[in-house]
Every structure is written in structure tokens, then in C-alpha cells.
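INFO  loader      accepted 1 record
INFO  loader      residues=144
INFO  predictor   begin
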Amino acid sequence: MTKSNILIKIIPPAEILNIIPLLQKLGNFSVSEALLIERLQEMVQQNYECLGVFDNEKLIGTCGLWFQTRHYAGKSVEVDHVIIDDAYRNHGIGKILMEYIYDYARKNSCNWVELNTYVHNFPSHKFYYNQGFVAKGYHFVKEL
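INFO  predictor   done
INFO  writer      dumping C-alpha cells
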């Protein structure tokens, strides 16, 4: 793999299910494949876009983008489920992906890029701090 082989592009809604094997590697949730399919098909009907990271034609990473307008930030994009295949980590691909996201967000008139990361995922914290992100708060959830 060389960085010149890396291509980042929007995954068309008709091809969204191609990200399922990568999502299943996240390991921080237990959702059946059938439910993942159902949810992804619903997500592409909303303000959701999905980036694919490719080494030549091979999908090696993915990242979701949720576009919205926030009262505190204006138009923004929330980065979701960032994953790079284990074999491709620590090669600068995450940095390439984030630069792509920043450029794409600017082209879409976004003022703000935000994301959530699990509290136990210390390597991601370091990565995002190095990318210039700051922790502004906590993300609370309550399952119903």
C-alpha cells in the first residue's frame, strides 16, 4: 500500500451495504446484520452521507457524515463511525481522511466538524486532539 493508491469518495446509497463488514469490526455494539441493513437503508434517506476509503478498489475504511444546522455552530457535519481496517492503521490514512472531511465540509458551507468517541477509546482521543479537536462536553445516552 502506498498513499498514492488511497482514494476517498462518497459511497452511493445503492452501495451503502458494502460498509457492513467494517461496521461489524467496531465491536462496541451488538446489532444483527439484518438490523444493520435496515438502519443503513433508513439512514441514507436522511441527511447522511458515507465516505469510503479505498486502496485501489478495496474498501479499507469508512466514515459517516451527518449534516445539520446547529444553533451554536450554524451548518455543521458530525463525523460518525470512523473505521480504518486494522491492516491499514498507523499509516497516515486517518489524517488523509480527516483532511478530506475538512475540505468536504468547507465545500458544503459547514462552520463546524464534530464527533463522538467512546470514553474508553484512548487512541482515538489522542488522534482527534492531534487533529485540533477539543472536548466540549459529554454525550449522554439512555436506552429506551
